[in-house]
Amino acid sequence: MKQRIYLSLAHMGGREQDFIQEAFDTNWVVPLGPNVDGFEKDLSTYLGEDRHVVALSAGTAAIHLGLVALGVQSGDEVICQSFTFAATANPIVYQGAVPVFVDSEPETWNMSPGLLEEAIKDRIARTGKKPKAIIPVHLYGMPARMDEIGSIAATYGIPVLEDAAEALGSEYRGRKCGTFGEYGALSFNGNKMITTSGGGALVCRTEEEAGAIKYYATQAREPAPHYQHTRIGYNYRMSNICAGIGRGQMQVLEEHIHRRRSIHGLYTRLFEDQAGIRVMDNYSGDYDSNFWLSCILIDELQAGISRETVRRKLEAENIETRPLWKPMHLQPVFKECPRYIDGTSEGLFDIGLCLPSGSSLGDDDIIRVAELIKSMCR
Ligand SMILES: *Cc1c(COP(=O)(O)O)cnc(C)c1O
């Protein structure tokens, strides 16, 4: 059996252990410390736009604290892209609020501005209340239509919380994803663009907001010699050890993005003349995806094979692939939630497949995957 090819693996740069060693040498084996400060500074510098980044224990924690900071409470509604990972929607429910799912549009696979506006109008008409926040996602690294979404959000005065967990390094009209919303959430889980072995960050607009996020993330402890609390807090800060990995990873981030983009370019060339296989691509020059995962759509009639058969045959060849995210409005746990759906994400889910895209893969791996798929097609 040939060596297994994974979808997306952690890929170390080399300097990570030096930062961890330093933490041990100085006995900073605790939450917080110099690596946390350093990692936050690296991220703020990288993202630009004068943003303030708070390192947290997970991307999910970042989304949760973004909602807390936006004042989302029990009984509120929050508009959420349906085509995403459950971690986008779960924190809405942690707050006792209700997710309102909005479908995607076919060019970016992300939140449809038309359906977003329809949802806002209809929620106001039905409940007499505005949704408290809007969460668009940059799925697989592809930027959402932030101009249109931002202008609808501004028209109705609803804040945007960007889920940029998959989009570190992606740009929309020359600006980094994660810097468009009131808040932006990043993830450093093992399979994302860079990893801290598990972690996330919230991108904030002001130092005051970042301070409030740090406060909530450390049990909402008030400045007093004893333990004093006037609000409910969380234990969501990143540890100094994890942040050490993050600092090492920041040194290879550009390289890793470059590699993921070249993997996408290679898949695009290899599938160019294959009927029935379409590689997801930037819709126009406004979009510059990091191509966290390269995805294809398989037209069964043209290709002569279904997505699921391709997936199973690749698995038999020890190659890991995965269907696209199953939309949240189709998940049993969210079956009671309001939804504004036109079938786009469901159609993509039926025929889409994520291909091995990790930055540690070689061209030979990518060629093996693509040639195998082509050999299955008509
Ligand atoms: C990974 C991911 C998250 C959650 O991040 P964690 O660090 O795993 O908690 C949220 N949203 C999306 C779209 C993701 O892919």
Automatic annotation (TrEMBL):
It comes from the Bacteria. InterPro entries: DegT/StrS_aminotransferase (IPR000653), PyrdxlP-dep_Trfase (IPR015424), PyrdxlP-dep_Trfase_major (IPR015421), PyrdxlP-dep_Trfase_small (IPR015422). One of its GO terms (molecular function) is transaminase activity. Keywords: Aminotransferase, Pyridoxal phosphate, Transferase. Transmembrane segments: none annotated. CDD domains: AHBA_syn. Belongs to the DegT/DnrJ/EryC1 family. This is DegT/DnrJ/EryC1/StrS family aminotransferase. It comes from Coprobacter tertius.
